[in-house]
Write a structure and sequence with these properties.
Blueprint lengths: L11 E7 L4 E7 L5 H11 L12 E5 L2 H18 L6 E12 L22 E7 L8 E6 L12 H15 L13 E7 L6 E5 L4 E3 L16 E10 L2
Antiparallel strand pairs: 1-2, 2-8, 3-4, 4-10, 5-8, 5-10, 6-7, 6-9
Length: 236
């Protein structure tokens, strides 16, 4: 089944600036013309295999290439403007359907805290919500002891050192983070509205906003289904 990207007739977009660092977050509502077709396609791929070589606490399956390429082409100008990318070229990327399935009691330490996907300023994460209501949105965080809201290459070593000290002082967190903690302060939170896309830099500290009693389903029609695109921009 081929799925080509077509924009919704009532698509809307805005760029927020979050936190003290003013990081851009592009919020696009009514993104895809037929989001239910994406859910149906994901359901046909189930069960998804476990996510490999990643901190993601769940399972993933590939998104159709024509959809990913079409979505990128449609968004290209908006991404360049929102994230000040100029004429940089896209050199790589990735695209998956994702489902959070790991119980809170089985999370690794890193999965219980906000994280980054990359320190590079040209790496963008695009997240499309395709789940029923109540499956949890996405939160962005500030690391209290450093004040960092983004982790760049030159901040990485200090951040890791302070984070290790924080864990020693406060103990390991339990379950999914969903709001303020002794180590992190939530600076923005976005609801998981069906067919809403968020775009942010991969170096922003972020996490899914999952309530303490969250139970993830491996069924794409019932679980916290998202479509994730990762685009890497570099100078030509």
């Amino acid at each position: 089944m081929t799925l080509d990207f077509r924009p919704h007739g009532r698509i809307t977009a805005r760029t927020d600036r979050i936190g003290a660092e003013g990081s851009p977050v592009l919020v696009i509502d009514n993104f895809a013309a037929d989001p239910q077709a994406l859910v149906d396609h994901a359901a046909a791929l189930a069960p998804f295999p476990p996510a490999a070589q990643t901190f993601y606490p769940g399972v993933r399956a590939p998104v159709p290439m024509p959809f990913a390429q079409g979505a990128h082409a449609y968004l290209d100008a908006a991404l360049r403007q929102a994230f000040d990318l100029g004429d940089q070229a896209v050199v790589s990327g990735g695209w998956d359907f994702s489902l959070v399935t790991r119980p809170p009691t089985e999370l690794t330490l890193r999965q219980r805290m906000p994280h980054i996907d990359s320190t590079h300023p040209g790496n963008l994460a695009l997240l499309l919500y395709l789940a029923p209501v109540g499956q949890g949105g996405t939160g962005f965080y500030r690391h209290r002891s450093t004040g960092y809201e983004t982790v760049t290459e030159d901040r990485f070593d200090l951040y890791e050192s302070r984070l290790k000290a924080d864990i020693a002082a406060f103990g390991e967190p339990r379950g999914y983070i969903c709001g303020d903690s002794p180590v992190f302060e939530r600076i923005a939170d976005y609801e998981a509205v069906f067919n809403r896309m968020l775009v942010y830099r991969s170096r922003n500290l972020h996490s899914a906003s999952l309530a303490p009693g969250f139970i993830g389903s491996p069924d794409p029609r019932m679980g916290r289904l998202t479509l994730n695109l990762f685009l890497h921009f570099r100078p030509r």
